[in-house]
């Protein structure tokens, strides 16, 4: 696998080695040994999958400690714009984000460590999105930020009148108004 570093330390894009022939393709979507050697040591404990249609925007979500999660995300069908926002107070990249297009054709994966809010927008008629988490889902630990916070400056690549949100995602605070954020100096994993 090829590891592409981003502007934010710890947030990486992963390109698998793809083997193609007249039958189709094959690639190793995850190897604990390779991930631990090339990205960082981690133990994923839960896999999730969602299906969404064009215009759906999910995010910007995170879980608070002790249930904070790192995520390894990828697209099985369609395309998304995937976004990670640094919400670690004191971080040199606090409030900055990395956005990457994940598609069924590029087979890229995106690793988002603990201490980041995560979201994605659906760019194709339908998407199937999968992700691995290194901690179990805990509803009492949910946190989120406003997807349209102007201070974050995220271009979701969808016209605002086409964006489809859950009722919950319509009412999250801006980063500057968030009551709870991560501390950059605390060990998160």
From TrEMBL:
Catalyzes the epimerization of the C3' and C5'positions of dTDP-6-deoxy-D-xylo-4-hexulose, forming dTDP-6-deoxy-L-lyxo-4-hexulose. This is dTDP-4-dehydrorhamnose 3,5-epimerase. InterPro entries: RmlC-like, RmlC-like_jellyroll, RmlC_Cupin_sf. One of its GO terms (molecular function) is dTDP-4-dehydrorhamnose 3,5-epimerase activity. Signal peptide: none annotated. It comes from the Bacteria. The lineage of its organism: Bacteria, Pseudomonadati, Bacteroidota, Bacteroidia, Bacteroidales. Belongs to the dTDP-4-dehydrorhamnose 3,5-epimerase family. The gene is rfbC. Homodimer. Its EC number is 5.1.3.13. The keyword Isomerase applies. Keywords: Isomerase. CDD domains: cupin_RmlC. Pathway: Carbohydrate biosynthesis; dTDP-L-rhamnose biosynthesis. It catalyses: dTDP-4-dehydro-6-deoxy-alpha-D-glucose = dTDP-4-dehydro-beta-L-rhamnose. Coiled coil: none annotated.
């Amino acid at each position: 696998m090829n590891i592409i570093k981003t502007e934010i330390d710890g947030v990486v894009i992963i390109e698998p080695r793809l083997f193609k022939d007249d039958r189709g393709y094959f690639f190793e979507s995850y190897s604990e040994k390779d991930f631990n050697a090339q990205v960082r040591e981690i133990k994923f404990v839960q896999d999730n999958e969602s299906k969404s249609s064009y215009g759906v925007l999910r995010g910007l979500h995170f879980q608070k400690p002790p249930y904070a999660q790192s995520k390894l995300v990828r697209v099985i069908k369609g395309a998304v714009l995937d976004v990670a926002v640094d919400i670690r107070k004191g971080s040199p990249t606090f409030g900055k984000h990395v956005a990457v297009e994940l598609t069924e054709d590029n087979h890229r994966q995106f690793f988002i460590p603990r201490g980041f809010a995560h979201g994605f927008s659906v760019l194709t008629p339908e998407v199937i999105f999968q992700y691995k988490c290194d901690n179990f889902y805990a509803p009492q630990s949910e946190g989120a930020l406003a997807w349209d916070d102007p201070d974050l400056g995220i271009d979701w690549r969808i016209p605002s009148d086409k964006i489809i949100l859950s009722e919950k995602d319509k009412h999250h605070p801006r980063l500057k108004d968030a009551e709870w954020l991560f501390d950059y100096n605390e060990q998160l994993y």
